[in-house]
Amino acid sequence: MESRANDPKDDPNATDEWSDGSGPTEGDDPDDASGADSSAILEAFHAKGATVVTSGVDRTDVEPTAGADGDSAAGTDRGRRLYDRWSGKERLYDGLMGLAAPLRDDAFDALSIESGESVLDLACGPGTNFERLREAVGPEGTIIGLDYSPGMARRAAELVDERGWENVHVVLADAAETCGPESSFDAVLTTFALHTMPDADAVVENVHDVLGSGGRFVVLDSRPITDGPARLVNPLYERAIARFVNHQRGRDTLELLDAPFDRVTVLETYDAGAGYLAVTEKRDGE
Ligand SMILES: C[S@@+](CC[C@H](N)C(=O)[O-])C[C@H]1O[C@@H](n2cnc3c(N)ncnc32)[C@H](O)[C@@H]1O
């Protein structure tokens, strides 16, 4: 994709932006974007070291990891490389993910989005959820997609460009490091991603921080099967898929939600209990 030269005022990643008085004023806390518009959210992401890959921003540095060998590196690097590889296999990836469309429908319903809200699509991949989220928030709302794979973030940003969605933005960042400024989102959605995150507990804590009071967190994901005969094959299954999706074996992602959130509701389970849809809410004083 062609990279463009930009007016620094349009580019939240431009380093000289804040020394010329066009960025946040002195005393502004880039960490707190409560009630902020999308540009304040994007500036706060940038202040945390994230790269905004949104429309009109230079993408020269946003290249899939070179020579990616998904099996050799550890942890975050391994996951990032693996998903960079997946980002180049569009038809296969989209075909596989398309199988889960009905489950996504349940997740969108669970989000109960209202027009004008700001929503984080956590680990957005190539932007599969964007269209539905955008329909739900309407022209006044904001969607931020976040992913740590440059290849995926780039694909997501290209989708945004193609569709001309001005209120959808893409951020390249490790969610374990930042999910954005505090109290900036009305809702966070994550689909098929928590179980691939090496540091999912830190990510869940970050999600809690970025939700405003009453904000919803909807998780569509998988967990180890602990009951019934299926539990016997679960370790084999997890081992098999770890290689392809960076699955974190034995990690119960549903349990992780209990640490920062008071009450977690499981709305649906799928695949003998290996898949689940859960919703939780940040309460006053949490
Ligand atoms: C199986 S894909 C799911 C993508 C998308 N949510 C969907 O439903 O199609 C998992 C995604 O999680 C991203 N991911 C994994 N760990 C991450 C992290 N720590 N921070 C940001 N993104 C992460 C990967 O790069 C990948 O795009």
Topology, pairings included?
Blueprint: H1 38-47, E1 51-52, H2 75-87, H3 90-98, H4 101-111, E2 118-122, H5 130-137, E3 142-147, H6 150-163, E4 168-172, E5 185-191, H7 200-210, E6 211-222, H8 230-245, H9 253-256, E7 264-270, E8 275-281
Parallel strand pairs: 2-3, 2-5, 3-4, 5-6
Antiparallel strand pairs: 1-4, 6-8, 7-8
Helix pairs in contact: 2-6
Bound molecules: S-adenosylmethionine.
S-adenosylmethionine binds at residues 79, 83, 97, 123-125, 128, 146-149, 152, 174-176, 191-193, 196-197, 203, 245.
How is this structure best described in words?
This protein is α/β, with parallel strands linked by helices. It has one domain: Rossmann fold (3-Layer(aba) Sandwich), CATH 3.40.50.150. The protein is 34% helix and 18% strand. It is built from 9 helices and 8 strands. An 8-stranded mixed sheet has the order 1-4-3-2-5-6-8-7, with helices on both faces. Strand 2, helix 5 and strand 3 form a beta-alpha-beta unit. Helix 2 packs across helix 6. The N terminus is likely disordered. S-adenosylmethionine binds next to helix 2 and strand 3. The site of S-adenosylmethionine (SAM) has 22 residues, from helix 2 and strand 3.
